[in-house]
């Protein structure tokens, strides 16, 4: 007789990220340098290399994840999406112009179409990414309908706007529930138990600080209303500063809530991620990027000053060298920002989440069997073509 | 059968970790758990997987998901010795930089060729498919934008004598042009020296141009040139062309920050080279039209050359009309008759120049 319990007792396991800064930095530098000569087409290879690196260095209970996606899939997805978008753009242009002639808001439905496309593309891009994530010999995968998700997301967007942002936590909970309910690890179905109310409670302090900042900004604007030239910058300064401080804090709250609500059967996660931890990642990144831009600006300034003294009616070697320096610094600024942002923010937040996550009920993974198929890459291509593929 | 050591196996069928004996046999690597065969992989199918640990993780080309982790360095070395293509996946995963560069250059070149040669061609065919009613609506929409850009509070010039003179000039030109629908000409009280032909047969003449002109023939030349654009449906073609060019150039540099400048620059260069041919054709049309009325086209060239001299670049607002001197030289080669009756009497000409003395809301 073999009396196996239906769900094995929980075993604790920790997630971990093995930090190999040099290897990741090399991927980013190579990617940045190849972006220009390939007219941007290298981005599919860069994204795949970044994902391959991050996935394979992340583990749960000592077992690493793996990313099995291929850059060519992304390229093909992009090309197909581009072709699909041509008729949509043509219709958009014609109807938009004709509608303008009637002085009507008939272009709104078309805006809706692209909004809808955007949510659809993001859902399908997630399905592509998830179904190329391998762990313990099985793949994660997604079912569900990108169209149903897009409708849901649009309705929630409207609610968020109508409630001046107050509905945001409930939107996040609803959309995450949909995504996780349609995410599986082999035969093991995923789920999400986080609630909007819970996210709201966790973020309420920062939301109140944000309100206070808006109030302060308005007060400043009124107090300096006699000098309108000073009022706007002062108010805007407070608002921008508040947004810069609050965004990472809220992101930390959001990520922890997201990790803690995620389920795969009896498998659940705990997170020790703090809002302050995410804030420091952003602060450090901001300071480093600022320092980099200032240094580049100084080099640029010195070069321009030196060039200003040389006669411009003839091509001297110094002039050529000066313009070469300017071009190089400009390129470095253009590409360096992206490299530093990905290195310090994307990788930093990824590592922070991994290193603060623990799991219980890992034993349930033993019950998972192979299921699901890889999703197509057209959604990912559509997201890229619509400039929505911001992060990892 | 040689038992070489042990490994942790995920067989790709369940997520259960199986502690297996690894047997390195002549036919391949066999993983056995408690006497039961879990996997049998031929050596040439085995690939190393990128991983975090110090050990060796292997997979097979025939199975995307199954993995065997080997912690024992001796066993790992033995496997590496037997698997000829162990590192082939890492090699395959490395981006083929040379090929990507080559294909990207080819893609960029084909996009540029499409933009320079095929898009204008396609715009011509597409314009033929646009019904006149829709083209008029487009023109109305664009006219709103033009007005907004010029300021003037949405007014048009409406001095009664001036309008009568304009009508007489327009009527002679329209009769000679013999278009399906006569062009509708409107003068706006703006000091910019320019004239624009909009989709749908509407021509916008700016007061600045009227003041710059010295003779009725110069104004007639400008209008004849714009009627040429109307006859060729250039406004519509250009809108289609700009849209297509923008879309295609947008394919390049999908997400390189700041590259929008490069795309915009490319668009401008393409636009300018396209307009040159279009402008020459409109000039040729104007010369034929004026010749039909027995009037010369040289005054149009004189006007353009004069404006180029004054501004050092010619009017560059909304339309590119480059190279006034070159255009004058080209127009000199035409018939340029002077035997036709003057298009306007001196009184009418004076009235036309004062058309903006009074205005009304459009
Ligand atoms: Zn023209």
TrEMBL record, chain B:
<protein>
    <submittedName>
        <fullName>M48 family metallopeptidase</fullName>
    </submittedName>
</protein>
<dbReference type="Pfam" id="PF23368">
    <property type="entry name" value="DUF7092"/>
</dbReference>
<keyword id="KW-0645">Protease</keyword>
<dbReference type="GO" id="GO:0004222">
    <property type="term" value="F:metalloendopeptidase activity"/>
</dbReference>
<dbReference type="GO" id="GO:0051603">
    <property type="term" value="P:proteolysis involved in protein catabolic process"/>
</dbReference>
<comment type="similarity">
    <text>Belongs to the peptidase M48 family.</text>
</comment>
<keyword id="KW-0479">Metal-binding</keyword>
<keyword id="KW-0862">Zinc</keyword>
<dbReference type="InterPro" id="IPR051156">
    <property type="entry name" value="Mito/Outer_Membr_Metalloprot"/>
</dbReference>
<dbReference type="Pfam" id="PF01435">
    <property type="entry name" value="Peptidase_M48"/>
</dbReference>
<dbReference type="InterPro" id="IPR001915">
    <property type="entry name" value="Peptidase_M48"/>
</dbReference>
<dbReference type="GO" id="GO:0016020">
    <property type="term" value="C:membrane"/>
</dbReference>
<feature type="transmembrane region" description="Helical">
    <location>
        <begin position="246"/>
        <end position="266"/>
    </location>
</feature>
<feature type="domain" description="DUF7092">
    <location>
        <begin position="6"/>
        <end position="79"/>
    </location>
</feature>
<keyword id="KW-0812">Transmembrane</keyword>
<dbReference type="InterPro" id="IPR055518">
    <property type="entry name" value="DUF7092"/>
</dbReference>
<keyword id="KW-0482">Metalloprotease</keyword>
<keyword id="KW-0378">Hydrolase</keyword>
<keyword id="KW-0472">Membrane</keyword>
<keyword id="KW-1133">Transmembrane helix</keyword>
<feature type="transmembrane region" description="Helical">
    <location>
        <begin position="100"/>
        <end position="128"/>
    </location>
</feature>
<feature type="domain" description="Peptidase M48">
    <location>
        <begin position="165"/>
        <end position="332"/>
    </location>
</feature>
<dbReference type="GO" id="GO:0046872">
    <property type="term" value="F:metal ion binding"/>
</dbReference>
């Amino acid at each position: 007789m073999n009396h196996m319990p239906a769900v094995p007792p929980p075993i604790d396991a920790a997630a971990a990220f093995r930090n190999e800064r040099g290897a990741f930095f090399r991927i980013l530098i190579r990617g940045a340098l190849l972006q220009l000569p390939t007219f941007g087409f290298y981005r599919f290879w860069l994204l795949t290399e970044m994902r391959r690196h991050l996935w394979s260095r992340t583990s749960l209970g000592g077992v690493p994840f793996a990313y099995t996606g291929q850059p060519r899939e992304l390229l093909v997805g992009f090309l197909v999406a581009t072709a699909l978008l041509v008729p949509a753009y043509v219709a958009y242009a014609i109807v938009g112009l004709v509608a303008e002639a009637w002085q009507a808001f008939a272009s709104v439905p078309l805006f809706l179409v692209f909004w809808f496309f955007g949510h659809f593309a993001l859902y399908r891009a997630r399905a592509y990414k998830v179904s190329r994530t391998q762990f313990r010999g099985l793949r994660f995968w997604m079912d569900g309908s990108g169209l149903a998700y897009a409708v849901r997301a649009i309705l929630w967007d409207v609610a968020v706007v109508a409630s001046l942002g107050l509905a945001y936590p409930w939107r996040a909970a609803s959309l995450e529930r949909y995504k996780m309910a349609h995410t599986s690890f082999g035969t093991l179905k995923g789920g999400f138990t986080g609630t909007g109310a819970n996210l709201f409670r966790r973020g309420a302090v920062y939301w109140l600080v944000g309100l206070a900042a808006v109030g302060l900004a308005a007060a400043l604007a009124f107090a300096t209303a006699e000098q309108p030239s000073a009022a706007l910058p002062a108010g805007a300064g407070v608002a921008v500063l508040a947004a810069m401080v609050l965004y990472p804090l809220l992101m930390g709250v959001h990520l922890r809530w997201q990790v803690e609500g995620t389920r795969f059967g009896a498998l659940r996660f705990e997170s020790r991620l703090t809002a302050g931890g995410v804030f420091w990642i952003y602060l450090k990144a901001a300071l480093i990027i600022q320092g980099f831009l200032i240094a580049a600006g100084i080099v640029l300034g010195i070069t321009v000053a030196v060039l200003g003294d040389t006669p411009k009616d003839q091509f001297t070697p110094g002039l050529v060298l000066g313009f070469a320096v300017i071009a190089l610094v400009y390129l470095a600024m253009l590409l360096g920002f992206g490299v530093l942002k990905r290195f310090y923010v994307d990788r930093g937040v990824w590592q922070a989440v991994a290193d603060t996550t623990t799991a219980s009920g890992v034993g349930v993974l033993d019950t998972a069997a192979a299921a699901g198929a890889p999703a197509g890459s057209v959604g990912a291509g559509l997201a890229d073509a619509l400039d929505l593929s911001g992060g990892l | 059968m040689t038992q070489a050591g042990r490994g942790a196996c995920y067989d790709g069928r369940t997520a259960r970790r199986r502690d297996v004996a690894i047997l390195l046999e002549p036919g391949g690597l066999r993983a056995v758990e408690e006497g039961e065969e879990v996997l049998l992989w031929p050596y040439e199918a085995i690939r190393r997987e990128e991983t975090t640990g110090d050990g060796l993780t292997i997979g097979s080309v025939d199975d995307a998901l199954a993995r065997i982790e080997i912690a024992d360095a001796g066993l790992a070395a033995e496997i590496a010795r037997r698997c000829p293509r162990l590192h082939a996946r890492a090699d395959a995963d490395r981006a083929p930089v040379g090929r990507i560069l080559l294909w990207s250059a080819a893609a960029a070149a084909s996009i540029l060729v499409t933009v320079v040669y095929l898009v204008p061609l396609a715009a011509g065919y597409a314009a033929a498919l646009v019904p006149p009613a829709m083209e008029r609506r487009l023109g109305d929409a664009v006219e709103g934008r033009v007005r907004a850009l010029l300021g003037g509070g949405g007014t048009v010039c409406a001095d009664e004598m001036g309008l009568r003179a304009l009508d007489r000039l327009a009527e002679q030109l329209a009769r000679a042009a013999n278009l399906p629908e006569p062009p509708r000409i409107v003068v706006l009280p703006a000091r910019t020296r320019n004239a624009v032909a909009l989709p749908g047969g509407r021509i916008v003449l700016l007061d600045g141009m009227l003041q710059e002109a010295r003779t009725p023939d110069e104004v007639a030349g400008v209008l004849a040139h714009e009627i040429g654009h109307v006859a060729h449906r250039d406004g519509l073609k250009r809108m289609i062309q700009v849209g297509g060019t923008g879309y295609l150039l947008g394919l390049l540099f999908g997400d390189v920050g700041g590259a929008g400048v490069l795309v915009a620059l490319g668009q401008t260069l393409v636009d300018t080279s396209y307009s040159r041919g279009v402008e020459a054709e409109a000039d040729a049309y104007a010369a034929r039209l004026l010749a039909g009325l027995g009037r010369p086209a040289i005054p149009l060239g004189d006007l353009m050359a004069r404006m180029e001299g004054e501004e050092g670049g010619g009017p560059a607002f909304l339309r590119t009309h480059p190279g006034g001197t070159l255009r004058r030289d080209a127009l000199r080669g035409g018939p340029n008759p002077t035997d036709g009756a003057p298009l306007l009497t001196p009184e009418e000409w004076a009235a036309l120049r004062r058309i903006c003395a009074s205005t009304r809301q459009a």
